[in-house]
Amino acid sequence: MSARLVLVFFATHAACWSAGPSLVPQEQFKPTTTATELLNSVVQQRGLHIAHQVILVHPSDDLVSVLSYAAAGDVLLLANGVYKPEATDASALVIGKNITIAAQQTGQAVLDGQGKRRVLEITNGHVLLKGLNITNGYTEDDGGGIYIDGGTVNIDTSQISSNTADSWFGGGGIYIESATVNIDNSEISSNTVTYGSGGGILIGGGTVNIDNSQISSNTAANLGGNYGGGAYLSKGTATNFSNCSIAGNQAGDNGGGIYAEQGARVQLDDRSAVQSNKPDGCYGFWSSPACNKQ
Fold first, then answer.
1. What is the chain's pLDDT, residue by residue, as a tens digit (294 residues)?
2. Are 235 and 265 a contacting pair, CB within 8 Å?
């Protein structure tokens, strides 16, 4: 199969996550090969693979092997269905290179941790996750849904829900150790951290921009003193919230919606709403007395 360069352009959308059947524009992701063809070619060509392919993957395919053999710059286009990869005991999928993983139909490709491993671990590369449903992750460490420890990661029009970190530090839905992360038009909801903080997301390092998104119904479950039911922002991090809703989250002590350590740099624009969180909306915006948004 001849090489084909796929140029992908991404538009900014105003709407938040919707699980409806809207299609990822086909001019962006038109399959140039299939998972079966890819794996066959790897065997036949002793591991050689032309980059910049759009690889159509089905739930019956070995997604771990497809990701392993995909070249930097490839797009893994996931057909509708539930994917239950098992890369390691700790993480269902481990990403350490430039790659795009996109749903063929927004919200209809489910990456499932099966309640026994975190769903995604990202260690390096420019990574785009688009239109995915990331759910049912579990870890006794940090980041039940997604653990990010490097690279530049864009999460677009995706849902991170019903994941658990049974951890003393946290990040039920997402844990970010060190990276540049952009989250757009997405929902982080119904995630739990059992002992630690950051039921929805814990930002332990790096720079994070969250736009046009919802952080809702997340819990720091140890109500004896945990912080940041929706989001926990560590010292030295930079986080920007734009046109976001942080609602219905719960923590044990302060920052039911958002908790920011002293030294965390935070911007929360006037289009963002922090409401109906327990015991309070946001806490610890040390450089911004306007933290009392409820």
1. 333 333 333 333 333 334 444 444 545 788 988 998 888 877 555 555 667 889 999 999 999 999 999 999 999 999 999 999 999 999 999 999 999 999 999 999 999 999 999 999 999 999 999 999 999 999 999 999 999 999 999 999 999 999 999 988 999 999 999 999 999 999 999 999 999 999 999 999 999 999 999 999 999 987 656 999 999 999 999 999 999 999 999 998 888 999 999 889 989 998 999 999 998 888 886 544 445 444
2. no
Distance CA 85, CA 64 (A): 6
Q: Which structure tokens are listed for 207?
A: 């720079």
How far is Cα 80 from Cα 261, in angstroms, rounded to an integer? 41
Q: How open is the CA angle 8-30-145, to the nearest 5 degrees?
A: 70
User: Which residue(s) pair with 94 in the sheet?
Assistant: 121
Give, in degrees to the nearest 5, the angle at Cα 187 between 184 and 193.
120
Look at the chain and count its residues: 294
DSSP 8-state code for residue 40? H
Please provide residue 290's backbone torsions phi and psi, each rounded to the nearest 5 degrees: -75, 15
Single-letter amino acid, residue 57: V
Q: What are phi and psi of 67, to 5 degrees?
A: -65, -40
In the numeric block, which tokens belong to residue 108?
């209809």
Alpha-carbon gap, residue 143 to 88, rounded angstroms: 15
